[in-house]
Amino acid sequence: MSKSWIRQGYTKVARILGKRDPKSRNFPVLEGHPAAQQHAEVAVEAHESIKERAEELIKEFKIYRGNPDHPNNLTYLQSYFVDLSNCGPMVFDALQKIKEEEHSTLSDRRSCREGICGSCSMNIDGTNTVACLRPIDADTSKATYITPLPHMFVIKDLVADLTHFYNQYRMIEPWLKTTKAVEDGREYRQSPADK
Ligand code: FES
């Protein structure tokens, strides 16, 4: 909900009630109608409360930026302010919103969006996790810090270099193996009875 929409609604209520000064709690046109006066006060208070809450929904994200290909190769945290009332619930959603609406040069990895592939692994507020399963901390009084996975070289922004990881992965071969070849040379199939 935009601030201008709230301001317009508030002004409209005040105008209908003949209320010139929006800060005043007295509505001359309702003199002699205590119930209506009370309803008008409640309506104005509700608008003020919505306005306050709408302002609270702006959340700051401090995101690591860095591009080793850039001549200066400076790394820094860049602040982005996201309206949570207009954003999905996960950190992943906030990142996509920033990329689409503010800064398309921000780089990250993503694929499945359901916590399976691990592509969106990064460090969020000090914890290594996947952004698509990490809910946004709705406490707008503090920023959320997003940095690449630690102890890894960075290709750009939130994209870590996974070459070393995959080399180690190949060395330990952490997958199931069989000594029996498939008869038709295609994939291993499983019947319902095998499950
Ligand atoms: S995009 Fe696959 S785990 Fe997040």
From TrEMBL:
Under which pathway is this protein filed?
A: Carbohydrate metabolism; tricarboxylic acid cycle; fumarate from succinate (eukaryal route): step 1/1
Report which superkingdom the organism of origin falls in: Eukaryota
Question: Which is one Pfam family of this protein?
Answer: Fer2_3
Cofactor(s) the record lists? [2Fe-2S] cluster
- State its location(s): Mitochondrion inner membrane
Q: Does the keyword Transmembrane apply?
A: no
Q: What is the lineage of its organism?
A: Eukaryota, Viridiplantae, Streptophyta, Embryophyta, Tracheophyta
> What broad class describes the main subcellular location of this protein?
mitochondrion
Q: How does the protein's chain sit in the membrane according to the entry?
A: Peripheral membrane protein
Q: Which UniProt keywords apply?
A: 2Fe-2S, Iron, Iron-sulfur, Metal-binding
GO CC annotations?
mitochondrial inner membrane; respiratory chain complex II (succinate dehydrogenase)
Query: What does this protein's UniProt record list under function?
Result: Iron-sulfur protein (IP) subunit of succinate dehydrogenase (SDH) that is involved in complex II of the mitochondrial electron transport chain and is responsible for transferring electrons from succinate to ubiquinone (coenzyme Q).
Whether Iron counts among this entry's keywords is yes
Please report the stretch or stretches of sequence annotated as the Succinate dehydogenase/fumarate reductase N-terminal domain: 61-166
Q: Which PROSITE patterns match?
A: 2FE2S_FER_1 (PS00197)
Which terms in the Gene Ontology molecular function aspect does this entry carry? 2 iron, 2 sulfur cluster binding; electron transfer activity; oxidoreductase activity
Subunit structure of this chain's protein: Component of complex II composed of eight subunits in plants: four classical SDH subunits SDH1, SDH2, SDH3 and SDH4 (a flavoprotein (FP), an iron-sulfur protein (IP), and a cytochrome b composed of a large and a small subunit.), as well as four subunits unknown in mitochondria from bacteria and heterotrophic eukaryotes.
What InterPro entries would the database entry show? 2Fe-2S_ferredoxin-like_sf, 2Fe2S_fd_BS, Beta-grasp_dom_sf, SDH/FRD_Iron-Sulfur, Succ_DH/fum_Rdtase_Fe-S, Succ_DH/fum_Rdtase_N
**GO annotations under biological process?**
respiratory electron transport chain; tricarboxylic acid cycle
What is the protein name given in its UniProt record?
Succinate dehydrogenase/fumarate reductase iron-sulfur protein
